[in-house]
Amino acid sequence: MSTRHGHGHGAHATPGHAGRRHRWRLRLAFVLTAGFFGVELVVGWITQSLALLSDAGHMAADVVALGAALIATSLAARPDSTGRRTYGSYRSEIFASGLAVLLMLGVSAYVVVEAVQRIGDPVELQGGPMLVVGAIGLGVNLAALLLLRGGSTESLNVKGAYLEVMADAAGSGGVLVAGWLIATTGNVIWDTVAALAIGVFVAVRAVLLGRQVLDVLGQKVPDSIDVERVTADLAGIPGVHDVHDLHLWTLTSGMLVATAHLVADEGAPTQDILESAKAVLRDEHGVLHATLQVEPARSRECHELDW
């Protein structure tokens, strides 16, 4: 009996690319965010509001992150003409998410440092313009959040943009609160307090997203997958004696990948085992791309690896 190999994509491989399906959301969010960024930057510069300038800085990071996400989804959908990228360019979306993390951390650090340095400095601020711009910014952010929310649970790339905009919405809310407090109390310390709160919030969101990015790049088993259950389901296929060298990872959001060696009982139909294993991975665990090897129990060609 010869060893059989199978390379399965599943019945719905193309829809597995989550970022492509939600590209229109990124495009609209990009237009909204880029349009408001200039307004906030100019008003922040005129009023010398650190809260407005910090929020404008984060808005700029949003523009870059959304633009990178758009470019990444375009690259991911582009066929490889070199023959060297055997997995295509799908990982470009994960790199775009990593860029969003770096931008968020950079903006957060800048805002916190500037806020600390300003403590005690005499600054004259106008609460009125802060209230107006903060309210408009919050409206823009909420519109972008509604656009991106639908894809944030499926695509890490879209989630990175979603968290960017969420942090910016919190920033706009902080600007609103600071503007109201300054207008009612006359104390400009609230501008610094709002800036610090924005900086800390952005940093926390960045760290959480960064962990997910590193999990994908490190080829960690996705949280939605139970390795023991996958092994048990494959071992339960009629004719399968043993399962080893099972590896599960995420290529990009919505595209789970697996490889495994299945040891067949003596005389078991290897082709039937192969097809059943593909169906189990696809239908029970959402793995649309699987490379499987079925080998007879007496085979000495394959040895279990220790990684």
Characterize the structure shown.
Strand 2 (240-252) and strand 3 form a beta hairpin. The chain has a four-stranded mixed sheet with strand order 1-4-3-2. It has helices at residues 18-21, 23-47, 50-77, 92-118, 127-152, 156-185, 189-217, 227-235, 270-285; strands spanning 4-8, 240-252, 255-264, 289-296. 45% of the residues are buried. The protein is built from nine helices and four strands. It folds into two domains: 18-217, Alpha-lytic protease prodomain-like, CATH 1.20.1510; 221-296, Cation efflux protein, cytoplasmic domain (Alpha-Beta Plaits). By secondary structure, the protein is α+β, with helices and mostly antiparallel strands. Helix 2 runs antiparallel to helix 3 and helix 3 (50-77) packs parallel to helix 7 (189-217).
Brief overview, please?
The protein is an alpha+beta fold and 307 residues long.
CATH architecture of the largest domain: Up-down Bundle
Structural classification: alpha+beta
| Continuous helix count | 9
CATH topology of the largest domain: Alpha-lytic protease prodomain-like
Mean pLDDT: 79
> What's the β-strand tally?
4
Rounded Rg: 25 Å
Shape: elongated
GO cellular component, one term: plasma membrane
Protein name: Cation diffusion facilitator family transporter
Keywords: Ion transport, Membrane, Transmembrane, Transmembrane helix, Transport
Subcellular location: Membrane
